[in-house]
Design goal:
The structure holds two protein chains of two kinds. Chain A contains ten helices and no strands. By secondary structure, chain A is mainly α. By secondary structure, chain B is mainly α. Chain B is globular and about 55 Å long. The chains are: A mainly alpha, B mainly alpha.
Chain lengths: ~260, ~260
């Protein structure tokens, strides 16, 4: 048990630091904080120009969506980076329990997602026409945490695919863009074609964004708790799927000796 | 002179072929713009602004050209650094600029896949009208835009030689340039101080040239501005590459990954 906790916390922390070339600020700030500012502004201004919805719609949608960025890219890079630096074989050869090994890597990314999201909310509040009441913030924090968890679970799934496919970064890009397109981040769900809305209901973020928008409009957490539970359930389902894929692709990787192919 | 043109031509052909063979690069050049174009089409459909979706299709395609230039120019330098071939590229007899320029031109050329993809996607699934009002001006605007962006890529690439984390700039610069060059949003909506910044960026004039020629209007002044800016970028790129190359040699940072 103690060993598993050590793998979970220490291993997760070290892996997270390694993600950003030992967390150099010159990489972290432009990527995790700089780009989100402009994403929020970009879509808010398109919204103004196309006369879709008000600024709040875009700030909430994009701020919650940005909680996905760290989780999905981070988990993809966790496995992809091991492959790139030719350490994936060694990682797979360790006797460490795979559950704490990979969940430990996911935990800092959830925290990172929450920070990015909070930062995007702040930027939106400062630069755009958004008014959020202070009393809504705790409920929003819960929703963002739930969404960050669900998205990091999807990231785990992408990371698991990284054991099988050589170019996991393309997959990560595709997943992030698909979330932006499908989950009602910038387009009202009822304006999407029916099949897209059905797909959106099975993805992380959709329910989180819906809950966050309701809270921003004055709803209490209790009024949207079913959306938060749905988001968490979707996250749990993706995490379970990811763990199964990790096990399967680890066996496959050993059989095909493909951990070192780049 | 003929050797110089030959070097650029051969280098451009080589890099276009190499990038075309990269599944990742092509899929990113095609898939990402299609996703953003779909997003833009749906947003404009959901909104109440009147106007042609061709305006949106061209803007989304141009977004792809910028992404391709931004990530291609910077990524290629980073890739060479990872492969350990950057030192050799710098040590060859021709000036570094003549080694890098064909590469940055090739990345913006590959961006034409994005424009083609978004236009076809729009035509097939969103009934975007593809009637070009002034075909000749459109055909001239395309290479002028590619040259403008390719030379802007040259300026960007010079910074990637100097700083090993400069590729973080690629992540940072994608959205702001999409926004302030008016690819999907009219510049009149943005604060006044954004205007002068947008004027010194080739995508602003490139998209205006494409829109003027495709929808209606006189595209030639915009084409001229695109080419004039390209000349300015060439001078700046030449200077910055020289300086950054010297600094990178002094500090021995070329091979740092």
């Amino acid at each position: 048990m103690r060993q598993n906790l050590r793998v979970f916390f220490v291993g997760g922390y070290l892996s997270y630091r390694a993600l950003f070339n030992w967390m150099h600020w010159s990489y972290y700030i432009p990527t995790m904080l700089g780009a989100p500012i402009f994403q929020v502004l970009f879509f808010a201004y398109i919204g103004r120009y196309a006369k879709v919805r008000n600024d709040e719609f875009f700030v909430v949608g994009n701020a919650v969506q940005l909680s996905a960025m760290a989780g999905i890219y981070g988990m993809a890079m966790t496995v992809g980076g091991e492959r790139w630096t030719q350490t994936l074989s060694q990682l797979m050869a360790t006797p460490a329990n795979r559950l704490p090994l990979f969940l430990g890597r996911a935990l800092p990314l959830i925290a990172n997602g929450i920070i990015t999201s909070a930062f995007a909310f702040t930027v939106g509040w400062l630069l755009l026409d958004v008014s959020l009441s202070w009393s809504a913030l705790p409920a929003l924090a819960v929703v963002i945490a739930a969404s960050a968890f669900a998205c990091t679970s999807l990231g785990l799934l992408v990371g698991a695919m990284g054991l099988r496919v050589r170019d996991v970064f393309f997959l990560a890009n595709f997943v992030v863009y698909a979330l932006v397109l499908f989950c009602g981040v910038n387009i009202p769900l009822d304006a999407l074609p029916g099949w897209m809305e059905s797909v959106a209901r099975a993805l992380p973020l959709t329910h989180g964004i819906e809950a966050a928008r309701a809270i921003a409009d004055g709803a209490s957490l209790a009024q949207v708790d079913y959306l938060v539970w749905t988001e968490l359930a979707i996250g749990a389902a993706y995490a379970a799927g990811a763990f199964a894929l990790f096990k399967l692709f680890e066996l496959e990787g050993r059989r095909r000796a493909s951990f070192e192919s780049i | 002179m003929s050797r110089l043109i030959r070097l650029i031509w051969v280098g451009w052909k080589f890099h276009v072929k190499t990038l075309t063979l990269s599944g990742f690069f092509i899929l990113t050049s095609v898939l990402q713009p299609i996703i953003f174009a779909t997003l833009a089409y749906l947003m404009f459909r959901a909104g109440t602004r009147e106007g042609t979706l061709l305006y949106v299709a061209l803007g989304a395609g141009m977004m792809g050209i910028w992404s391709s230039t931004l990530f291609g120019s910077g990524g290629a330098i980073q890739w060479q650094r990872w492969q350990g071939t950057l030192e050799y590229s710098i040590a060859v007899p021709p000036p570094l600029m003549l080694v890098i320029l064909p590469l940055t031109l090739a990345t913006s050329t590959i961006g034409l896949y994005s424009l083609t993809a978004t236009l076809l996607w729009g035509k097939l699934f969103f009934d975007v009208p593809l009637d070009v009002a002034h075909p000749l001006a459109f055909l001239v605007a395309l290479p002028a835009t590619v040259v403008g962006l390719g030379l802007l890529g040259l300026v960007l690439a010079s910074t990637f030689i100097m700083y090993r984390n400069a590729n973080a700039l690629s992540n940072l610069l994608e959205y702001p340039v999409w926004l302030i060059t008016g690819l999907l949003v009219s510049l009149s909506l943005l604060p006044g101080w954004v205007g002068p910044i947008s004027w010194v960026l080739a995508p602003t004039w490139g998209i205006n040239a494409l829109r003027e020629s495709a929808i209606a209007g006189n595209a030639w002044p915009e084409i001229g501005m695109c080419l004039a800016l390209a000349a300015v970028y060439l001078v700046i790129g030449h200077f910055t590459l020289q300086q950054f190359e010297r600094l990178a040699r002094d500090r021995a940072t070329l091979s740092l990954t």
